[in-house]
Specification:
With 627 residues, the chain is α/β, with parallel strands linked by helices. The protein has 2 domains: 315 residues, Rossmann fold; 281 residues, Rossmann fold, CATH 3.40.50.880. The chain contains 21 helices and 20 strands. It has a 9-stranded mixed sheet, with helices on both faces. A hairpin with a 5-residue loop joins strand 2 and strand 3. Helix 1 runs antiparallel to helix 2. The radius of gyration is 31 Å and the shape is elongated. The N and C termini lie far apart (87 Å).
Length: 627
């Protein structure tokens, strides 16, 4: 009957509907065969079913004794080779699998040490070895094998390049190594030991270990993801089907005594629930192989337990255009979603530098802050986009916050760009304006009032330089960890705020010296309203909460690049960037090291003044932090 089904399909697509009917009939027959078939039930009972099935399968696989005795088997790793690949190292090692047998593994370790990283067990299929999931250039010398291994799309290398720890061993053997063991049991056990090895590494975040494989490797990913509860996310490519289908046209190494009576593949996949599971099947898989319509049927069954456990979104079938290969973008996207810590993007848009070597040095300012954010806030991805307002505004689509530092309206320019940014603000994107960017002219001031709650209004605000002393700071996430400080800069003040300061929280307030108020009337020098406020406090940095929940921040200082060397001021700005991006500000603020001379001088444009050797930068940094 099944053979006739295949022939029918090859004859004509017209028969497809009848084929499905036959397929479903075959399906119905199998249901009675499975004593542990998963059927819908409450979440707690679903968990009990998983425990029960895992125990039964471990016994059938003849690995239950190994599982019980695992703590008595040391890994005893022995490094055989190590190759530096720049951003990561490839190591080949030997570890104990059982007490009597050692296995060879490949491990890639990111060069950047620091916070623990996610890890993935990479698994090849028939004909593969431990090198197969990696880029041919990196590990395989043999051209024929390299060609055969292309189906893996070098997914191990792709993950290593993205900073994952990866591990691989060979599971394609068909001989049984140890007496009284089972082929599938030994394959699964070796992979379990790979997870043990990952768990022994300080650079691995044990709560973020995934597994992925293709074909027999996809099958082993199913087994590992289902049986080993340490696996946090599973990608099983080129395998999802039914056992009935696997009875034809396939190597029978998947089968062992008692398996079919107990479960079908859908049930083994159901053991991964509610953990994230992605199955991949290619449209070009022939009907005799891992045929998409059959995968869809099996996936319908797997969905049941995910629904019961309240996580229907955690299981998906990726149907791609190709055949029996890894869909690399889907694999990477899936692990990014489930194993990487979600990062929020903060985009800096600096305008052109305009006041000598270290004044209005917006690019240097933004690059310094972005670099410090990236090095110190793991949940932030800061990006600096140079060259003016982006030609394609779509580049800003992923931003959680946008920071603008420029002269006047030197960055946005025509109203259409202001409208584009307004659309982003309305979607909740946080916005900050620094220094002269706060003064884009009255016609655009209305946007700043909407986005950040205040702006520099000519003939109302003024721009003197003075020593601002911030004696007390309000309680606000932006001031976390910041001590009162004073710093000399061009602090514009008497800003135009929203009526009654609605939504505006002053962050930095100081009393300017009276003589700064005495300039003659003009767009930047003075006016009667400013003169009438002798001795009064002025707000030079503020936070804004928009009625729709979006956030804004304004800071009038930042004329000179050197103010960013001041630890308290820099912390306040970094806190503000996080806050507008809705990234939780640490209890003690974004604590960062005082920048070095090299860091401070990096990206400054134009010629260094003759009277400013690096030593003077060093002194400036020191003096900034002495006050
Ligand atoms: Zn086989
Ligand atoms: Zn300035």
């Amino acid at each position: 009957m099944v053979h006739s089904r295949i022939v029918l399909c090859m004859l004509s697509a017209v028969f497809l509907s009848s084929v499905t009917a036959i397929g479903q009939a075959g399906y119905a027959l199998r249901e009675d065969d499975r004593t542990m078939r998963y059927t819908s039930r409450p979440a707690e009972q679903a968990r009990a079913w998983q425990r029960d099935v895992r125990a039964k399968l471990a016994a059938l696989l003849r690995i239950d004794d190994l599982l019980q005795n695992k703590s008595n088997i040391p890994l005893s790793p022995k490094k055989l080779s190590s190759v530096d690949k720049g951003s990561y190292t490839v190591e080949e090692l030997e570890i104990n699998s059982t007490g009597n047998r050692r296995i060879r593994i490949i491990v890639t370790l990111p060069a950047a040490q620091g916070k623990p990283m996610p890890a993935v067990v990479c698994i090849g299929g028939h004909g593969s070895d431990l090198y197969s999931p990696y880029d041919e250039e990196i590990v395989s010398k043999d051209a024929t094998k390299a060609q055969a291994d292309r189906i893996y799309r070098g997914f191990g290398t792709a993950l290593a390049n993205k900073g994952y720890v990866t591990i691989s061993t060979t599971v394609s053997q068909h001989e049984i190594y140890e007496k009284d063991r089972l082929l599938m049991g030994e394959r699964l056990w070796d992979l379990t030991r790979c997870v043990d090895y990952l768990g022994s590494l300080a650079c691995v975040d044990r709560s973020r270990i995934g597994c992925a494989g293709l074909s027999l490797g996809g099958e082993m990913a199913m087994w590992l993801g289902g049986m080993d509860e340490r696996i946090a996310a599973t990608v099983s490519a080129g395998f999802l089907t039914t056992m009935e289908h696997m009875e034809q046209n396939h190597c029978m190494c998947w089968k062992f005594d008692g398996l079919r009576e107990l479960v079908d593949f859908a049930d083994i996949y159901s053991l991964t629930a509610p953990g994230p599971l992605q199955c991949q099947n290619g449209m070009k898989e022939p009907v005799s192989q891992f045929y998409v319509p059959l995968a869809r049927e099996a996936m319908e069954e797997v969905r049941t337990i995910y629904r019961d456990m309240g996580k229907p979104e955690n299981v998906l079938l990726d149907v791609h255009e190709e055949g029996h290969v890894i869909d690399l973008p889907a694999l990477l996207g899936f692990f990014a979603q489930h194993l990487e810590i979600a990062k929020k993007e903060i985009v800096f848009l600096p305008g052109r530098q305009s006041h000598g070597w270290s004044g209005h040095a917006y690019t240097a300012d933004c690059k310094l802050l972005a670099q410090i954010l990236n090095e110190n806030v793991p949940t932030v991805e800061a990006v600096v986009i140079e060259g003016g307002w982006p030609k394609d505004v779509k580049i800003l689509d992923g931003a959680a916050a946008i920071v603008i530092a420029c002269d006047g309206n030197g960055l946005l320019g025509p109203e259409s760009n202001w409208q584009a940014l307004d659309r982003l603000a309305r979607k909740g994107v946080g916005i900050a304006f620094l220094h002269y960017a706060l003064d884009p002219g009255k016609e655009y001031g209305k946007y700043l009032l909407d986005w950040i709650g205040g702006y520099y209004e000519q003939f109302w605000s003024i721009n003197p330089s003075w020593l601002a002393e911030f004696k007390s700071l309000p309680r606000h996430p932006i001031t976390r960890g910041v001590q009162s400080f004073k710093v000399e800069d061009e602090w514009y003040y008497h800003m135009r705020f929203r009526e009654d300061m609605k939504g505006v929280t002053p962050i930095l307030t100081a009393v300017p010296p009276d003589d700064t108020r005495k300039g003659p009337d003009g767009p930047h020098s003075g006016n009667a309203a400013v003169r009438a406020r002798m001795g009064m406090g002025e707000h030079v940095a503020w936070a804004f909460e928009r009625p729709d929940g979006g956030r804004g921040f304004g800071c009038t200082g930042g004329h000179t690049h050197w103010v960013y060397a001041k630890n308290d001021f820099r912390m306040l700005l970094l806190n503000a960037m996080c806050w507008i991006a809705k990234v939780e500000v640490p209890t003690n603020g974004v604590l960062t090291k005082t920048p070095t001379v090299e860091q401070m001088e990096a990206n400054l444009e134009g010629d260094r003044p003759q009277d400013w050797p690096p030593e003077r930068t060093r002194q400036t940094i020191e003096e900034m932090n002495r006050q």
